[in-house]
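Entry:
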Amino acid sequence: MIPQETVNRILDAADVVDVVGDFVTLKKRGANYTACCPFHNEKTPSFSVSPTKGIFKCFGCGKAGSAVTFLMEHEQLTYVEALKYLGRKYGIEVNDMEETEEMTADRLRRESMLAVSEFAAKFFTDNLFNTSAGRAIGLSYFKERRGFTDETIRKFGLGYSPASKPFVQSEEHVPTLFEAAQKSGFKKEYLVSTGLCFEHNGGRVLDKFYERVMFPIHSLSGRVIAFGGRTLREDKSVAKYMNSPESEIYHKSNSLYGIFFAKSAISRLQKCYLVEGYTDVISMHQAGIENVVASSGTSLTVEQIRLIRRFTNKVTVLYDGDAAGIKASLRGIDMLLEEGLEIKVVLLPDGEDPDSFARSHSAEQIREFLDASEKDFIDFKYELLSSGVDRDPLRRSELIREIIKTISVIPDQITRTVYIEQTAARMGFKQEALFQEVAQMRRKRIESGEYEARRQETTSQRYTPGGNSYSSEVSYNDQPVKSDVPIMEQSEKELLYYILKFGECEMVFEQEQLYGAEQPVMRITVSQYISAQLDNDALSLINPVYKRIYSDYYKFRDGEIASVNSADEFGGDGMWKDLSQSEREDLLQQKILKHFINHPDSAVAKCVLNIIEDNYVVNVKEYLRSMIPERVVINKNVPHVVLIFKMKYIEYLYKQATDELKDFTKDTDPEVIREKMAQLSVLSQVRTALVKELKRF
C-alpha cells in the first residue's frame, strides 16, 4: 500500500500530456492533443488527450482514463506499478507498504477536512444570500463596491461569515459556522485543523473568519481547500485579509487562486494573465477575460509556476503598483523565465488595478489594451532600472549586470542570444563580453548546486543527447572511457587536450577578424573561449568521463574545489609579480594538471594522462608536423577544434534524425514526417554554415 499522501503528490505531479507523450507522438490541435490510438490499429487519428481535464480518450476503441490508467493499459502495469513508474518519472520516492491503522486514519482525516471545507463554502454562500446581515454587509459589498453579478458570486462561491455570538448580538438568530457544522455531524478537530475555527480562552470554539466576506480557494480539480476572508471594518487594528493556515489539504505554495476556473481558457488561448488578488481575478472573469490567476498576495513559487506551465508557457504579468513594489516582485519574474516561460509585462494606467480596469472597460477594450501595452520583460526591466544611469558609470555597470543576470536564467539558447545582442546594442557594450559573462553565470549556477533541490523535484537524472542518463552522484570508476557515440570521441578528446594543456593561456583576437568590424583587441583564455562557445550553443560533452573532466576543470579553476591562483602558493606576491605572463600561465596549468593526475577517480586520472601524452591530434597534424611550438598557434588551433566539435555534434544529431525517419512506416502521420524533414533541413543548413566556417582554416 502506497501512503495516500504520496499518491496525492504523484497524481498532482502527473501531466497526462507528458506521460502519454513518452509513448505516443502527440500533435496539438486547439486546446487538446491528438494522435493515432496506441491501443488499436488506425490510420486516421481518433485518440485525444485533454490537458485541462487530465484525461485521454479514443473515439475509435473507446479506451479512456487518466495518466495512471494509460500506463496500466499501455504498459500492462498494476495500479501500484503505474504509481511507482510516475514516482520515478517525477522524482517522488514511493514506499510500498501495508496500510496501517494510522495511515487509514490519516486518509480519512484528509477526506473529512475536505468535506468540512466544502460544507463551510456552502454555509458562507447561504449566509450571504439568505440572512439580513449577509445581504446588508456582504452582498452589498460584492454588488455595489465591486460590481459583481449574482452569477459571478455563485460561480466563485463567494460568501459571508456571520458574527460570532460573544462579539455581537443580533435579533436574527444566525448560527455560527461551528454551530451549524456540529449540528451536521462534523467534529471540532476538523474545523480547527482546517483553520475555520479556533479555541478561545476557556475552551469555547469560535469562528475564525467572523464578519468577513469570504473567497473560497479551489484546487485544480475544483474542491474547496482553503479560504480568504476580507474584513469590511474600518478598524486599523484588524487585519484587512485573513487566510487559511497551511494544512494537510492546503499548501499555499502549490495553489493559485482561480486556476480551476481559468485552466480551460488558459489552455485554449495559450496565455495566462497573472495578477495579485482575489477581486482582480473575479473582475477579469466577469469582464470576459477568463485566463487569469493570482498568487493571492504571496511570493510566486516554483510550484505555482509549474502549475501554470502545465497549460501554457506564455504568461503576461499585470502590474498596478508603484516602482518600489514592482522592483520587489522582479525576482518572481526571473523565476518564471528560469522555468522556461515566455514573459510579457503590462503596466496599467495610473490609479488603476486589474479589478478597477476590468469594471470600467469591456472585454474587447481590455484585450485591445493588453495586446497593445504588452512589453517584453527584459525591455520593461531595462526601462524600470535605467533612470539616471547615463550620468553614473557605477549605476550603468549595475544595470548591465542586473540585465545579464536575468538573461542568464533563460534556458533557451537562441532567446538568450537575441537578448544579449539587443542589450549590447542598447548599452553600447561588446557582445563577446556579455556572452562570456552569461556563460560564466550559467556555469556557476549549475555547478554550485544553487538549484539542485529544484532539479531533483523534476528529475533525479540529467540526460545527454545520446539518450543515456547519468546521475550527478554517479561514480565513474566503472564507466567506460570510450564513448557510446564514436563519432564524438576524437573531437571531445581534442577539446579536453587544449583545456588541460593550454586552458590558462591567453588567446588574442583582432575582433574584425571574427566579427567583420573594427574593434579593439580582445584577450581571452583558452578555457574561457571553449566554455563560451559551448555554453552559447547549449552543447555538452557526451562521454561521461570526459564530461566529468570538463566540469571539474572549471570548478577547480574557479576555486570551488581548491584555489589555483593564490600568490602564496607560488612564493608570495613578490615572486608572483616578478613572473612573466607566460610563466604564470604555465604554473597555473601545472597546478591544474597535478590535480587531475592525482584525481581520486582512477578513470579520470587515467583518461587525463592518456589525453595529455597523446601527441597525435588528428585535426592539427599540419601544425604538429612543423617545428612551430603548439602554444604559438593556439589562436588558430582552438577555434578550429571547437568548430570540428560542433560539426561532429551536428552530424551526430543528423544521423539520429535520419535513423528515426527510416523507422517511419506508411502509416506514420504525414505531419510527423514533415516535422522530421524540417528538422533535417535545419541541421543540414547548420552543417553547411559550419563547413564554410571551417574553410577559413
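Residues 101-250 form a domain with the DNA primase DNAg catalytic core, N-terminal domain fold (CATH 3.90.980.10).
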